[in-house]
Amino acid sequence: MKKSRIFLVLLVCLIGQWGMNAQKVGSSPEYIKALTKEWEGERFKDGRPRVSDALLERLKKIRIEEAWGYLRGKGYNNQYEGGWKIIHPEGVMTGRVVTAQYMPLRPDLNQYVKLQGAKEKRDTIGGSNSWPIEMLVKGDVYVADGYGRIIDGTLIGSNLGNAIYANSQNGVVFDGGVRDLGGLLEIEGFNGWYRDEDPSYLQEQMLTSINAPIRIGRATVLPGDVVLANRHGTIFIPSHHVAELVISSEVVALRDEFGFQRLREKTYTAGQIDTKWTSEIKSDFLNWLKNYPDSKLPMTRKELNAHLKKNNY
């Protein structure tokens, strides 16, 4: 009898431990913090880095090529994806990423996700594709790995599109399909990068995780990354690199402006400008910057001077 009681206690402990270690749908704040451990700034309650609104706004003016070049220089070679259809192709979108992963429907796994979602106090009345939307806050971008599926895998229509915009005041990047594009076009301020449209609804696809690492085409994306999306593609920037990427790219734009001006003036040849600058050209650039109006600088004069000093201009 004593042995039976001991066995029963051990069994209860094992079951309890299994429950504690059960795979969640939404990543814990601790896991997100571990994924983004190099970020040293403010965070949201869910653990995602809170990159400032000011940086997100400045990032809109950065070219994809400049962001791509900076990240390649830091060893991040798989952060770009192109080949999108865009709801408003003239638009530029930046924001903090909330990730979601979808897979082809498998009934037993889908049942587990629904039960686990209920334990996490998620809305079980509607479809699980609404769960990431409920988590969005202003400035977020909903990024979903729909593995390129279009038919029977459309992740949103106009109803969910309106909900996304109401929560985030932003848009989406979907490696998958959308439906009711006409309705999505009518949501003022909303934009989306997606693979194609289809009238079918979501029925052969299921949500499996929220705020976990995902793949978008050839890019690896983490929750809390910052996305820059425009007509030239999408690039996903690790949060701890955003600030330096922005100011480095802004200085590159100033260098280009200086170089174009000097070429028009025929001060230097194209070969001189398009290669490593001599000390004479570098000195000319620094003097040119001193006379540049502060009101037209994309950064503060203090930020600019600190960057130039750090990079030995």
TrEMBL record:
Which Pfam family, any one of them, does this sequence belong to?
Answer: RraA-like
Keywords from the named record? Signal
- Keyword Metal-binding assigned to the entry: answer is no
Leader sequence residues = 1-22
Q: Does the keyword Signal apply?
A: yes
Task: List the protein's name.
Answer: RraA family protein
Where is the organism placed in the taxonomic lineage, from the top?
Bacteria, Pseudomonadati, Bacteroidota, Flavobacteriia, Flavobacteriales
